[in-house]
């Protein structure tokens, strides 16, 4: 059995079907796209390599908010907390 190449996950909003869609694609096929994209690195080391519920909440919330930048009709549906209550406000 041959090993699959490394994959990336894409998250899109389908306006016509009014649904969020996820798919996996070959990592090499998105390399050129990343050169002109907003890339937000999420350091695993700074999170003690914990891919836990809080990490998933932050990553998922960020993905939804990023989709809404260019598809503002999504904003009315997004109710995720953008800042945890115990976190001090950024100055």
Automatic annotation (TrEMBL):
This is Uncharacterized protein. It comes from Paraburkholderia humisilvae.
